[in-house]
UniProtKB/TrEMBL annotation:
SUPFAM superfamilies: Periplasmic binding protein-like II (SSF53850), Winged helix' DNA-binding domain (SSF46785). It comes from the Bacteria. GO terms for molecular function: DNA binding; DNA-binding transcription factor activity. Belongs to the LysR transcriptional regulatory family. Residues 11-68 form the HTH lysR-type domain. InterPro entries: LysR-type_TF, LysR_HTH_N, LysR_subst-bd, WH-like_DNA-bd_sf, WH_DNA-bd_sf, YidZ_PBP2. Keywords: DNA-binding, Transcription, Transcription regulation. This is LysR family transcriptional regulator. It comes from Thioclava atlantica.
């Protein structure tokens, strides 16, 4: 293995360009003309290759250069690899969604999957049929490190302070609605008094602390009794459907989960600050064509 590595390390790749042309032309002068080199420069390059491999690659037969048996056996594979390398270098930094087989990891809050992923996968089917996506959970405290380490490509989260190594932009915002079972009295009389007098469901993946709508509710002077704190909006809506509890949920998420359920979506008794989500990426990826394409695909 060490011998193989030392052979490669000492190899001047420009010599392989000369080799490929001599293989094609089977003539030193024509190869030199095609490469805009002198015949002596081509001869020197071939001597260096002979010394590198420890054996001749071509034998002169009249004016033609005839490959040796070893050269004839190995050259087709070598030339194929050179063609692949040349193609890779020529498209370096480019991104073709239709041809790409890339896999992207996006850190998404579970609640936003139902909004973002159906649209994203529909767009991928049309634009990049071989691209795959992994939706993963990453703690906010680890988001910057995960983006820097490329363990995730993008992250979606509420606006919050980030280091200078990250970039972010608004993704979408969503108003709240109040979800109740069909026939619930609140839907008929959505007042402050009715809202405050009813027990509620709060949704958060954290085990305690205020949830996102509490900030607006407290600013309006509204307090509520939370009887259930769960981790999923889908669970909250299922519980609301079979009880008198109310769930205050972003409207787009509630509308996506509502079909087939005996639920009513009602405006809150006063306008609450909308939920805002931002898209985050590492500064190193800001001008990367694949990252730019994916960011554009996620935006509404």
């Amino acid at each position: 293995m060490n011998k193989i590595h030392s052979r490669y390390d000492r190899l001047d790749l420009n010599l392989l360009r000369v080799f490929a042309m001599v293989w094609q032309e089977r003539h030193l002068t024509r190869a030199a003309d095609a490469l805009s080199l002198t015949p002596s420069a081509v001869s020197h390059a071939m001597r260096r290759l002979r010394d590198h491999f420890g054996e001749p690659l071509f034998q002169r037969q009249g004016h033609r250069m005839q490959p040796t048996a070893a050269c004839a056996r190995m050259a087709p594979e070598l030339l194929d690899q050179l063609t692949r390398l040349d193609a890779l270098i020529n498209r370096w930094g480019a991104f073709d969604p239709q041809a790409s087989q890339s896999s992207f990891r996006i850190a998404l809050p579970e609640a936003t999957e139902t909004i973002l992923l159906p649209v994203l996968m529909s767009r991928l089917a049309a634009e990049a049929p071989a691209v795959t996506v992994h939706s993963v959970r990453v703690a906010r405290a680890m988001m910057a490190k995960s983006l820097a380490a490329r363990s995730i490509d993008l992250a979606v989260d509420v606006p919050h302070p980030v280091p200078e190594t990250l970039r972010h932009a608004p993704l979408f915002s969503d108003d709240f609605c109040v979800v109740s079972r069909a026939g619930h009295g609140f839907a008929a009389t959505p007042t402050f008094a009715a809202y405050a007098a009813t027990d509620h469901i709060a949704v958060s993946t954290r085990h305690d602390g205020a949830v996102i709508e509490d900030v607006s509710l407290l600013a309006l002077g509204i307090s509520r009794r939370v009887r259930l704190r769960c981790q999923s909006y889908g669970t909250a809506m299922t519980v609301a459907e079979g009880s008198d509890l109310l769930a205050t949920i972003p409207r787009r998420i509630a509308a996506r989960l509502q079909p087939g359920r005996a639920l009513v979506l009602t405006d809150p008794p006063a306008a609450l600050s909308p939920v805002k989500l931002h898209l985050y990426w590492h500064a190193d990826q800001h001008t990367d064509p694949a990252s730019q394409w994916l960011r554009g695909l996620l935006r509404p």
